Every structure is written in C-alpha cells, then in structure tokens.
Amino acid sequence: MVSLFRTIRSMQRVGLREWWRQMQYIGDAKSGVMVGTDQFGNRYFENRNGEEEIPGRHRWVDFSQHEFNATQVPPEWHSWLHHIRKDAPNQDPVIQASTPPWQAPWVENLTGTRAAYKPYNTVKPKIFAWEPKVAPRA
Hints:
Low-confidence stretches: none
Number of strands: 3
Mean pLDDT: 85
Strand order of the largest sheet: 1-2-3
Strand content: 5-15%
Shape: elongated
Largest sheet: 3 strands, antiparallel
C-alpha cells in the first residue's frame, strides 16, 4: 500500500503532471533514475533506495503507448527488469558484444490485432463441404 508521505514526496520529485500519469497507468507513485530507452520509446527506471521501494519492485518500465502489453518489452530489457542481468542493456558490454549485426529488430506480438499473421492455403482441398442439390418438383 502506498503511504501518503511517499505519495507526496514522489509528487514533489517528478512533478504534478508525471505523478498524475503514473497514478493513471501504473497505479503507484514512483521516482527514480531513468536508465535508458528502447526502440519502442519505452523508458526504464530504477530506484536503489531501499527505504522507498519494496524489494524487487525498484525497476519498472514506463510504456510509450496508451494500449500496452508485456510483449512491447524487448528480451534484453526484460532480463534487466526481472533481475536476470545486473546492468541495463545499454550499459552491459556482454549484451552489446553478443548482439549480431544481422539480427532483426524486436517486434511486439501482434496476435489479436489487425496486423496479426494469417496464413492462407494454396493446396486444393481434400474434403469438400456438402452442397445440397435441389431438383425441381414436377
């Protein structure tokens, strides 16, 4: 639960407009250091002060789009958010060295949207639906 003192302190740090946006989108008042951004424009934050944040909740993402979901977080940032990696991808030399130049950029999961992949069949069907033949009555 968010305490009143923590909420007021966060409002003073991030400003009234950003505080209101956080309350609408993530339902919590957070203040921290911006660590980096990804190709979607999502901003990633971290607050290392143990007195302000619950352990394990000190890293978070601020999505750039209004309609957001978890597939809009690239794998490198996902591993940082979930404490698999210590350093952020833009500061981690291992991730920067291991990303091959031929690798395609990350694309969010488009299932359920108009841009979802829809396969089409080019093979002649083996089973045909029954089509009733109506004979004229005499």
